[in-house]
Design a protein that fits this description.
Radius of gyration: 17 Å
CATH class: Alpha Beta
Number of helices: 6
Strand order of the largest sheet: 4-1-2-3-5-6-7
Structural class: alpha/beta
Bound molecules: zinc ion
Number of domains: 1
Strand content: 25-35%
Number of strands: 12
CATH architecture: 4-Layer Sandwich
Shape: globular
């Protein structure tokens, strides 16, 4: 099976994110720094992006939460630092269509975009509690994913994306949420994104899962957590500041 390298990329940092949005009913009122992450996945002949990150600070402050983005964290510049230019990206996988995970799809004109069929349907008509996260049509906004809808390929459930990368259907945070199971020289890794936004959601070693605070269905979410437990893999979260310590996974010599 082919192996890949994973590079976490920060596209901005929420300066005071409500922690309980990530840890259901725990630490209400506590504010944390939360990066908005996308993941560059490089293989022998494929460049894949898991999510494409958030908007600039001005848009975020107006419609969502204040965030800080340095010039180096602008997605194209951050990718250039890894030797990747926009045309190099073959595949984008949107774990889900919340604004902070698909905002920059349009920067990669040659990429085919993979999204779950159920996610696309839900994004067109979300629960009202999630209107803002989707920048939903129902609020008078035009969600960014619409710009690239012609390049989208929908899948229904688990899907072999290519040799060594599998899309795994993990609903709960949203109706059509998916993770990416990536084969590396250090074993399988799950890009869990907002299914497990922090390391605290699942410390592993037999610890229980703590649900993310934002979800459409807790039963589905916990069924997804049980699936993750059975995978027995390392996971990469969606908004964890500690991830920024990792420049490349696996490190050489791991
Ligand atoms: Zn989300
Ligand atoms: Zn998110």
């Amino acid at each position: 099976m082919q192996t890949y390298e994973i590079y976490p990329i920060c596209t901005g940092i929420f300066s005071a994110a409500e922690k309980s949005n990530f840890t259901f009913q725990k630490d209400q009122g506590v504010k944390i720094q939360a990066p908005i992450l996308m993941y560059l996945i490089k293989g022998k002949d494929k460049v894949i992006l898991a999510d494409t990150g958030c908007s600039d600070g001005e848009w975020a402050a107006k419609h969502h939460h204040p965030l800080v983005r340095t010039a180096e964290q602008e997605p194209l510049r951050a990718l250039a630092a890894h030797g990747v230019c926009p045309d190099d990206v073959d595949i984008i996988v949107n774990t889900h269509l919340h604004w902070d995970h698909c905002f920059n799809n349009d920067l990669f004109p040659k990429a085919k975009i993979f999204v779950q069929e159920r996610e696309l349907r839900f994004a067109a008509c979300p629960l009202p509690t999630q209107y803002t996260y989707y920048e939903a049509l129902q609020t008078g906004m035009v969600p960014k994913w619409i710009d690239c809808v012609r390049r989208m390929q929908t899948v229904d459930g688990d899907h072999e994306l290519c040799d060594g990368v599998k899309l795994v259907f993990l609903p709960g945070h949203t109706e059509g949420f998916q993770g990416l199971l990536v084969n590396t020289d250090a074993g399988g890794c799950l890009i869990a994104s907002d299914c497990l936004p922090l390391y605290e959601n699942w410390p592993g070693n037999g610890a229980r899962f703590h649900a993310t605070g934002i979800h459409t269905n807790l039963l589905s979410l916990f069924a997804s957590y049980r699936r993750i437990e059975q995978m027995n893999v390392k996971y990469f979260p969606g908004h964890e500041i500690e991830v920024l310590q990792i420049k490349k996974y696996p490190e050489k010599g791991d």
